[in-house]
Amino acid sequence: MDMTYGDYLQLHKILDAQQPLSPEEHDETLFIIIHQTYELWFKQLLHESNFLRVHLQAGKESEALDTLHRMLVILKTLVSQADILETMTPISFYSFRTRLQQASGFQSLQFRRLECQLGQKNPRTLTLFTAHPAFESLSHDYEAPTLYDALLQFLSQHMGVAIPVDILQRPYSQPYTGDARVQDLLLTLYRERSPRVALLERYVDLDEGMQEWRYRHVKIVERTIGNVPGTGGSAGLAYLRATLFQPSFVDLWALRSSL
Ligand code: HEM
Question: How far apart are CA 189 and CA 245, in angstroms?
Answer without folding.
Answer: 25
